[in-house]
Structures are given as structure tokens and as C-alpha cells.
């Protein structure tokens, strides 16, 4: 018997008991919709969390915090480590920064700004994607590059109440009005010497302004000085990285250039796929690392467990619906026993009879699953639309922007349809077996 | 050709522990030659229906062998037996055994569907067969919309549609009036003469028994008389 004819038989049989079949399909559709909507919450929240993470971090970036030493502690990264890190495969760049260990104030005329000061390695920064919005990179020791937001925060020294706008920048009317390129800034550094605060001014020329950070919420107010300027600061403060001494703190030895340790070391992988491999290699070399991929892995694992749990709970609904399918199919076999008997008598293969009933149960299951999927997309849309409104009405709070409460990726309906198909095959199997075992003579005598 | 060798059968009735064994057929042997009409007569309870059901493969014999066209059907499994039936046997039942939810056309077409014949061939063959039994104009009628004679013709058309060499008939005229019975017997004789189809018919009706080239009388599960039509 051809498959097409088997389908025709199934459709004819289903038409005979439209109401019963409809109710069974309805129950299956409800089970499927329940499963999909339930699991879609897990998918939606995962999507929101991952999206949030990826928006805040660069996925190819790996932070290197230090290297494990024999006693179990960690030591900071030095130039020798940088050389090791640069040799690791699929590494695009290794950026390193030394941070000036005191609050630095920059002044030009009547305008000033406090900013973080770094010594950076520009060739590796450029490799990692650092770009200037205007100007050039420093060539001499007194030339500096400032972050994109530095000029926007260079405000008047006069006392004003409404200095900042709603974006956190100094208002235009209080801001340094000219272009900063080729302008000279005074950097003031301090130290406590013999119980007294002493200051030193260094004059630096701005030659470049960094590009606007890609993240909307980020501000870059850094100033990048040269290694020679840092040495000059260190020779004034008498401390490594220009740290200010406490009242009773003794003088410290200034480090040699080749002994410098870095406050911030970042590795940039060539692509996202390479990150895990680099992290594994660094782990083998006892470096302490952190990357968003690590965090993503953990978050994805937590959500995978949550989603599996939700799908399991949803599957219970489908199992309940499968009782309906079992009942419908059992009744169908009982009602059609004479027909089965006639078919067997004239030469229907037992396998064909079994297949017809299994097809019928899976047909009910699949139609239910498809309807359930369509309905669940509707419910998901309605939930995403209404939940923010309900939360706003009930609690007076705004939902975080971009939060997806329910998300149905393609894999979810596929999982649901597969589960539904398996469950309906299982629930239709026993009635199909009963159909195969129908006694021909009893069926012909209408005794079953 | 049908060969029955030392065929015995019994039914077990009653509840477990208080079962009674009732022998129905006792060591029966006979042959039905190719192109022959063999009728089996006997009173109710003589075992003739059981004999036909055993030959049909609807029940398994307790003992003995059944050979049909060189195949030992008494030892075939369910699937092979089904395959054998669709290719070698046609059935005519007393109560027609048509599927009520199918039209005359669909009932006749059913064996071809089970055989996996293509749509086009099925339509052509079914229409030819319905024309042959004089029911082409009734092809879209359901069994409940047909007379007893017409239903039995549909049943015969369904049996003939796969061109079986053997037709097994269980009281084929049992539900028909005498005029329709006469037409049907004539039709059976034509089929036997024109197509060489072998018939094994069980009946308690003398008129039916008379169309047989040979007749066997069963009594109490044994062949009591075997005769040739004069």
C-alpha cells in the first residue's frame, strides 16, 4: 500500500469523527503552546542577558590579571610576560597600560579637568583597533593623546551650579571653546614631602583625540602620556607610577624601565572562535584570565539547565494531551474493528494496518504541534507587548530597555514538534498494536 | 489447486480450569482441482465454515496441512499469509462484508490499494470490473444504498479485481432472494467457465450445491460423502 493512499485513508478516517479528532488536536495544541511559551521565557531572558553582556564588552577581549607563582599567589604582568603573550597563536594584539597612581589635574587657561592618566603602548593599541577622531599619535615625549570625552569635560574653573548636561558632559557654555589639537595642557602632580604637600607642573601638548567609544554609555576621558613623562613624574614623587606617599610611608625605589609592571593587560583575539583556545593556552601557562566568553559559557550553561527544566515541565502538558490521543486512537480501533477485519481478510498486511493507525496518531500530534506553535508565537508577541505595560501599571516601574521576556527561536518549535511526534507515536503504538491483533473472524461477525 | 491433508481442528471453550475441547474437524483430506467448482454441504455445526476459515487462513489448524497452488499456507506467518491472500484468493461472504463508509467504487478498489496499484490503473480496472458486474452506474453509492443482490455483486467485484485463481465463498446466496440467487449462481458458473477460476463454496442450499463439479458432505467433522455432479 502506497504512503499516499495511507494518508488518504487516515484523512478519511479522521473525517468520520471530526469532533473527537478536533478536541484531541486542541488538547495537543494547548500542550505544545504551553511548552513553547514556557520555554520561550528561558530563551527570552537568556537572549536579553547575553545581549546586555555583549553590548558592554568586547567579545574578543581577554583580560590578563596576573601570573600564578609557586606559593599559590599571583604576581602582576611584566614585559617578559607580554613577550610570552604576544607569541600565543591567534593573538591579534596585547595592549598594556600603566596607570598614574594619583589624581591628575589638567589645566588650560581658566579650564581644568581631572582625568585618569595612562602610559600606553600605541603600536599594540592601534593593532587592537584604537583610532583617532582627529590629530596624530605622539612623536615626542611631551606629546599626549586624549580620550574622546576629554575635551567635552574640560570645564571652567569658575564656581557654577549647572556645570553638567544630562549626558554627563560639561555644558557647552562652560566648556573650553577651542580645538585642543596642538594646545598645551598643564599637568599638576603632587607629593607629600616632609609632611608638606608639594606640586610640580608639567606642560604637555595635545596632538590627538581618540575616537568616540562604540558603546553609547561609555566615556573616555583618559590622557595617554609617554614613558619619559612618567619617569619625570616618578623622579618628582620618588615613588613607582607616581604614587602619593602616606604621612609615615618611607621613600620607595623607582623601577627600571625593564622591570615595569602593567596595571591593565588585555589580549585581543583574531576572532571570537579563537578566544577559548587562547584562554586555555594561557591557563596552561598559569596566567589568570577573564573573558566574556567564560562568562557567556557559565550564563549559557545556567540558562540551558533552566530551559531544559522548562521544556521538561512543558513536556508534561504534552504527555497529558497524549492520554487524549491514546483514548481517541483506542476508540477508533474499536469502532473500526469490522473494517480492519475486512481489510485483513482480503489481504491487508499487518504492518500496513499498524502504519495507518500510527500515521493517524502522529497526524493528530503534528497538526496539534503546528497549531500550538502558531498560537505560541501569538502569545509570545502578546506577552512581550503587555508585560511592560502590566509592570508599569502594577509597580510603576519601567522595564529595562531591550528586555525580551519571551523569545521563540526556530529550534524551540522544532524541539516541540519532535517531542510531540515521539509522544504521539508512543501513545498511538498500543492502539495500533490492538488493530493488528484484531481477530478477523470476530471482526467479520461484529463480535469486537 | 487446493490440497487438504489430514486436517483436524478443535475449539477450546469455557473458563480456565473448566475448559472443554470440542473437535470440529477430524482428519479430513481432499483435493480441489484447478478450474473446479467444489461445494461443501452439511448441517449447522458440521464444520464446513471452520473448514473454509482454515483454508482462508483466518484460523490455524490444530493438525494437518493445507496446500494452495504449491504453497503450504498452514505454516505461513501473518504477513506472508496476507500477501498470499491478496495475490491468490478472493472471498465472497454471506453478509457481503462491504465497508459501509466506502462507496461501491471504493470497496472494489480496496484490494488494488492494498496491492499498491497506481491511481490510473486502479480507476480503469475498478470501472471495468463494476461494468462487468453491471454496477458501473452505482459506483458512487454506499452499500446501504444498494440492494442485497447489488451488494453481493460489489463483493464479487472486489473478490475478482485482483484476478485470483481461487475464490472461497461462504454461503454466497445466504442473504439473497431466490431470483437474485439464480443470477448469482449463473454468474459464478460464467466466471468458472470463462476465466477458469476455481471455486470452493460452502453452503447448505441444494441449489448452490448443484453448481459444484463435485460436492463434499460434512457431518460431525468428517467427510461422509464425496460425489461428482451428474
Automatic annotation (TrEMBL), chain A:
InterPro entries reported for this sequence: ABC3_permease_C, MacB_PCD, Macrolide_Exporter_MacB
Subcellular location(s) per record:
Cell membrane
Tell me the Pfam families matching this sequence. Answer: FtsX, MacB_PCD
Domain (MacB-like periplasmic core) ranges: 22-232
Q: Which gene encodes it?
A: ytrF
User: Where does the chain cross the membrane?
Assistant: 21-45, 301-326, 363-390, 410-429
What's this protein's name? ABC transporter permease YtrF
Instruction: Give membrane topology per the record.
Output: Multi-pass membrane protein
Q: Which domain of life is it from?
A: Bacteria
| Family classification | Belongs to the ABC-4 integral membrane protein family.
Indicate the principal place this protein occupies in or around the cell: membrane
Write out the entry's keywords from A to Z: Cell membrane, Membrane, Transmembrane, Transmembrane helix
Classification via PROSITE patterns: PROKAR_LIPOPROTEIN
Q: Which residues form the ABC3 transporter permease C-terminal domain?
A: 311-430
TrEMBL record, chain B:
Is ATP-binding one of the keywords? Answer: yes
Classification of source organism: Bacteria, Bacillati, Bacillota, Bacilli, Bacillales
The name this protein carries in UniProt is: ABC transporter ATP-binding protein YtrE
Q: Does the keyword Transport apply?
A: yes
InterPro entries linked: AAA+_ATPase, ABC_transporter-like_ATP-bd, ABC_transporter-like_CS, ABC_transpr_LolD-like, MacB-like_ATP-bd, P-loop_NTPase
Domain ABC transporter stretches: 2-230
Question: SMART domains annotated for this entry?
Answer: AAA (SM00382)
What GO molecular function annotation could you give as one example from this UniProt entry? ATP binding
Q: What keywords sit in the KW lines?
A: ATP-binding, Nucleotide-binding, Transport
Q: Which Pfam families match?
A: ABC_tran
